[in-house]
């Protein structure tokens, strides 16, 4: 009887308490890591101007960062199972910080590719993956709320070429950056609302269906962005894209948890994040090559979360 009680206590999910501190830590992780990823469109412009590089070559820096931050997530999951989320996050934070610091002394695009793209990207995945896993360990009935609040710090869904797309349309750099601010504000608001909406009694049991619909609308709205002819319509399109992206991203780990056991959740999160890496490693470079060979082409988006 005593041993059974101990097992029940170990498997019991707090659903609050110290778990809210964990959620806050995960929120700050998204704020820092995904916040940087969301600025890649602006960083991309700065790198092109500083190194006078082509669109295709410059795009590899952003591609390397997002790829190493996502494609290596299964490795991060295995490390979490072996050493624990806390240790992996500590080491990842150190690697990420070192990569950013040495990037400040970069003298070439190749150096940036290594320091920022690969080193900081790999450090990022070692922090980003545990942030998803550990929240699920502390919540069950309130998992939708916890996951939504944990991702609220990111306010992203970066579109790598949106700033230059706006500049090429005749808008200023400040107007281009403002687009990202509009996107971020919408993203932040919707994530907060979805954190509670998807945990409502009437929604919780069937949340996989609205989640699937939101995912479809997210894909459609991403395609529509490249068709916008002026600043006003582009801002509106990005607002709707942010609406669907934020709802999708804030609940994807929650929905996945309904199909796997708690022991399988770590690897499931790793595979979830890694699936983004396929698009990250191919999308920006291919789009950059098309832009370099055809200056009139519409720009490709890149999904980060």
TrEMBL record:
What InterPro entries does this protein map onto? MFS, MFS_dom, MFS_trans_sf, Proton-linked_MCT
List residues of the Major facilitator superfamily (MFS) profile domain: 109-305
* Molecular function terms, GO-annotated: monocarboxylic acid transmembrane transporter activity
Q: Which compartments does it reside in?
A: Membrane
What are the record's GO terms for cellular component? membrane
The alphabetical list of record keywords is: Membrane, Transmembrane, Transmembrane helix
Q: What is this protein called?
A: Major facilitator superfamily (MFS) profile domain-containing protein
Q: Please tell me the species this chain comes from.
A: Capitella teleta
